[in-house]
Write a structure and sequence with these properties.
- The chain has 515 residues and is an alpha+beta fold.
- The protein contains eight helices and 18 strands.
- It is elongated and about 170 Å long.
Length: 515
């Protein structure tokens, strides 16, 4: 009787998946028990099916989500007691079969191992349940399992050694990374040194300009005092001469005339020269190079480059053709630029004889024949025209629309030569006092001091020009679906700047106006 009860108890302690005593038993919400590993593996396999589901293998109850598996402490204790009893039965010797050596289904001694069901079976199982299955002796199965365990141990040992080696390398890498603190200190020291050098250069530059200013102002002040003293002398001479002319007696007139001092020649004025451009030129070249290096070249090599948008094709040659974009969409950059928008007008007095300026002075067109009666002042010999407005300190922005390529837009000091430059059809950007962006059929050319920088960018019909006079920054933007920076000039501006344009035959430039 006790043996039958023990057998039934052991059947309740067997996992229905692995058919062995529970190992870390867990209880599902439906009340059925399984080995934690067995039920986890079962659900993992179900998840790989076309229609995954989380169900109990016993009652098929479905759960909305995977239950949290916690060990059934009470059941685990009962299983451990059963396992201890089994071990004590094995230690009793061959006199009789211990309960653990009997088949839980038929109560017969376990003799073979079923590979299909992965359990030990008796002779009845061999005939009934496991007849079509693969069956082997315990010794054969153990030999295979031992081989597998040895291979697993060897793999675990090798993997442990690899992990330990990797951890050592990570420790070394951590030390090397931490050692970079010295490099960081060195970099900070270098930047501090450069900062001090820039500050010294700034002080020296300002001191030189102030020295030139003082010398020039002293010369002007000396000349002003000479002029004032000369006016005083001339005033005294004029009073005495007028008094003498009013004298009625001839004798008195002649006597007083002899006492009148002669009017001496005026003292020569001190020549004063203060050429701001000459003072600034060597400094401007240095500051331009530093600005380009710090604001354009360095950020690109220090900061990580943003990846290209996924799925965006490269720009093809036919896409480089100038496209009209209307209406122009809004974007944050353009909105910021438009805060400083300026309405421009062309100056007909400067327009080349082939350029026709509209009535409102907002449009300039290159016509094949000479335009009569337009501009009586000195005109440009190249196909150029200035704007009436000039801009100094502050931030200024304007927009233009061009009909096609073969146009130059830029800024210049007032002294831009009006004569044709040898070898060029324009003179914008050929000297140090003008800057220009040439729109060509397949690219842009940025002109300054007679040098051109080629820029391979999409061509636009709508362009924006931003002038930050104080920072010495002149930028050209393409206005399309997004506002795109085409090119920036870095310089030191010393005079007011006038917008200027060059137009090839048949081209039209329109100055965009805003309320």
């Amino acid at each position: 009787m006790a043996s039958a009860m023990s057998q039934k108890l052991e059947e309740k302690l067997v996992c229905s998946i692995c058919l062995e005593l529970f190992r870390v038993p867990v209880t599902l919400p439906c009340g059925h028990n399984f080995c934690k590993r067995c039920i986890s593996d079962h659900w993992d396999k179900k998840r790989q099916e076309p229609e995954p589901s989380i169900t109990c293998p016993e009652c098929r109850r479905a759960f909305e989500r995977r239950p949290e598996l916690e060990k059934n402490v009470t059941l685990h204790g009962v299983v451990e007691l059963a396992r201890d009893s089994e071990e004590r039965g094995c230690a009793a010797g061959p006199s009789g079969a211990a309960p653990a050596e009997l088949c839980p289904r038929h109560g017969r001694p376990l003799e073979l191992f079923c590979e299909d069901e992965r359990r030990c079976i008796c002779c009845i199982c061999t005939v009934r349940d496991c007849r079509p299955h693969r069956r082997v002796l315990f010794e054969e199965e153990r030999a295979k399992k031992q081989t597998f365990l040895k291979e697993s141990l060897e793999k675990a040992r090798e993997e442990s050694e690899r992990i330990e080696q990797t951890m050592k390398e990570l420790e070394l890498q951590t030390e090397r990374i931490k050692d970079c603190s010295e490099l960081k200190d060195g970099i900070q020291s270098k930047f501090a040194h450069l900062k001090k050098a820039l500050e010294d250069f700034q002080r020296q530059t300002v001191a030189r300009i102030e020295q030139e200013q003082r010398a020039a102002l002293e010369g002007v002040d000396k000349n002003w005092n000479l002029c004032r003293d000369r006016l005083d002398v001339l005033g005294q001479h004029r009073e005495r001469a007028q008094s003498l002319l009013a004298c009625p007696e001839h004798r008195t007139f002649l006597q007083e005339f002899l006492l009148l001092p002669p009017l001496e020649s005026p003292e020569v004025l001190v020549p004063v020269e203060f050429d701001v451009a000459a003072v600034i030129k060597p400094i401007s070249e240095i500051l331009t190079s530093i600005s380009r290096l710090l604001l354009e070249d360095l950020p690109g090599c220090v900061a990580p480059r943003a990846p290209s948008p996924a799925g965006q094709d490269p720009v093809h040659a036919q896409e480089l053709a100038v496209k009209a974009v209307a209406p122009l969409p809004k974007c944050q950059l353009r909105a910021e630029l438009l805060k400083d928008h300026r309405n421009l007008t062309f100056d007909p007095e400067t327009a080349n004889k082939y350029l026709e300026v509209s009535k409102g002075a907002h449009k300039a067109k290159h016509r094949p024949g000479s335009v009569p009666g337009q501009g009586q002042g000195p005109r440009f010999q190249p196909w150029q025209v200035l704007c009436t407005q000039s801009y100094g300190p502050g931030h200024h922005y304007w927009e233009v629309k061009i009909s096609s390529h073969s146009v130059i837009l830029g800024v210049t000091y007032r002294g831009l030569p009006q004569e044709q430059q040898q070898g060029h059809r324009f003179n914008i950007g050929l000297d140090g006092g003008s800057w220009g962006l040439q729109v060509r059929e397949d690219c842009y050319l940025a002109w300054h001091e007679g040098r051109a920088q080629k820029i391979q960018e999409q061509l636009y019909k709508n362009l924006g020009v931003s002038l930050d006079y104080g920072k010495g920054l002149l930028s050209f933007y393409g206005l399309g679906e997004r506002t795109k920076l085409i090119h920036s000039f870095h310089s030191v501006f010393t005079e007011p700047l006038y917008p200027v344009f060059w137009l090839c035959e048949g081209r039209v430039v329109t100055l965009c106006q805003r309320d």
